[in-house]
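Running co-folding for magnesium ion.
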Amino acid sequence: MKFGGTSVGKPERMHHIVSLVSKQTEPAIVVLSALSGTTNALVEIGNLIAKGERNMASQAIEKLEAHYQAFIKDLVKAPEPYAKAQAIIAEHFEFLNIILKISFSEALSKDILAQGELLSTKLFCAYLEEQKIDYALLPALEFMTIDQYDEPQIGSIKVKLTQLLNQYPEKKLFVTQGYICRNVRGEVDNLKRGGSDYSASLIAAAIGATSCEIWTDIDGLHNNDPRIVKKTVPVEQLSFEEAAELAYFGAKILHPASIWPAQTYKIPVKLLNTMQPEARGTLIVEQAGSVGVKAVAAKDNIIAIRIKSSRMLLAYGFLRKIFEVFEKYRTPIDMITTSEVAVSLTIDNPAYIKAILKELEPFGTIEVDENHAIISVVGNEISQTTDIVKKLFGSIKNIPVRMVSYGGSPHNISLLIAAEYKTQILQQLNKGMFGLE
Ligand code: ASP
Ligand code: MG
């Protein structure tokens, strides 16, 4: 059972989670994110230290500590757990204040980021103790590891986690940190932003859990972006493939990397709502459950690159040479379409764009369009859905489409549009594809 930042972000929310998890009949591992806002604050603190702005960093640390002091006042009431919570805060903020004084390094910045999950889990445990609920803490830094390519080592995670669990044959409730891990050098590291979902899925896969529950503040994955479109409905069931397309192409509910462990080890994933635990949510399993379009999602900050060359005509090896440039700069390509004399592709990582464009120059005329969005229409066997193309393009006929990708997978049609049309296209698709307004 993984709970995100907003689910633990207020004392009363933490109380609520404890009442949820203590009702479990089966043994459960609770995976927690940092309190909402904490990781952002820690990123900022790390940046300030890196820039040598120690005074400002010190102020930011103080501000964050005040937030935690206020938090525990409402979290625990009895003197003993309260003293314990205070000691936890003192320990972690002392650590931050020590870091402030030593010279900055990449490894230290990861140590800073890890404080959020360490704090949230320990404070959660202090409240469990106040409530006299039996539990065991499983330190993520003792079992969650990544290799030299930052990929989780599922084999070793399995061995270490099993050993840890075997130490507590009597316990039914376990608590651990999401997001944090150790790298090949044995240093504290993390699974990248939003990585707690990934932790949960890896843990579920490693122990062969009956299910992996991701608890957030919305009742499952919706057919469209609820922040943009007025009426959206939760999707009941998705296949792992559909979920992967949606998670990757913009649905903010689940970290995209968290799909593969669950899929490989056949663990059903449930997206559930902390504030509405009885709601059905979304179930992600191998079977799609039904045929047809299920959801649309948008991915922002996309850069489109077009390479036009008459030399491409009837040539072979052209695409390889282009792709090699992106490979060299470790920049993933998301969408691609080709004509006989041009190829258009998209990336979302602008870090190496200058170098990439320079190396593409010899291949032909290059055009770059920034500030685009990928709109993904996802479903099961959508190509076999009657009139799908007519319906899709019919509902967005007034919007200029820069690229279309269809047939890459049976589950997805992607459109590239200028960012300014995003709201409009999502609204029109809601009406055209789902009959919702
Ligand atoms: N706390 C981390 C973050 O904000 C990990 C997570 O919440 O999933 O990115
Ligand atoms: Mg998240």
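Result summary
The mean pLDDT is 95.
Residues 4, 194, 197 surround magnesium ion (ligand 2) (CB under 6 Å).
Job closed.
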